[in-house]
């Protein structure tokens, strides 16, 4: 069974982490399937906006599976491991832990149910991927530092006050609110949306891990291309390569 679902309606892609019975914990499978979902969204001529959500009301995600940490989470983070120029709205309910906070951080807009609790406990666990560092470019510096270094949490109202989310709504209303926002975005000029998203991405400060992810993603695009295969094949066959630019 897939662990990430993709539904398309009226120009909006709804991408769902579907592991409610496991608090939507981030596994290797979730990372791989989420990456494929972003690739599908990028390639879709119909889908202009994405809503990223999770099944159930207890957790957007309880974070990484600590028994088998998916250290390649960066591959599934839009704006870090994969470029996504179209708008993304994150929708949260319940626990938003670790990598879940990173996903919200990199979304363009966010709607939180009033039971959402945001936390980043890596300092308490003893490992870090580092992508969270650019949170300080998105919310006030001291707020980000307390959240990251103390390893505590903030509730939905505080997340709204510091600018981490755009809306806080009663539990059960978060998806409808996000769909309303998505419909408004989908009705706007897609070229303008993409341009402004790219320009804002260039304006925001980026942490070292985010920059490294951007570079690695760009390199992997080359090293998994048809031209890469053609170049290696031509070399082994001792003939001039015929590159296509793909």
Question: What's the helix and strand layout?
Answer:
Blueprint: E1 4-9, E2 12-17, H1 28-43, E3 49-54, E4 59-61, E5 88-92, E6 95-97, H2 99-106, E7 109-113, E8 117-119, H3 122-125, H4 141-150, E9 153-155, H5 156-161, E10 167-169, H6 174-186, H7 190-203, H8 208-223, H9 226-236
Parallel strand pairs: 2-3, 3-5, 4-6, 5-7, 6-8, 7-10
Antiparallel strand pairs: 1-2, 8-9
What this model shows, in words?
- With 246 residues, the protein is an alpha/beta fold.
- It has one domain (4-206): 2-enoyl-CoA Hydratase, Chain A, domain 1.
- It is 40% helix and 17% strand.
- The chain is built from nine helices and ten strands.
- The protein has helices at residues 28-43, 99-106, 122-125, 141-150, 156-161, 174-186, 190-203, 208-223, 226-236; strands at residues 4-9, 12-17, 49-54, 59-61, 88-92, 95-97, 109-113, 117-119, 153-155, 167-169.
- The strands form two sheets. The chain has a six-stranded mixed sheet with strand order 1-2-3-5-7-10, with helices on both faces. A four-stranded mixed sheet has the order 4-6-8-9.
- The longest helix is centred in the first third of the chain and has 16 residues, at 28-43.
- It is globular and about 65 Å long.
- The chain starts with a strand and ends in a 10-residue tail after the last helix.
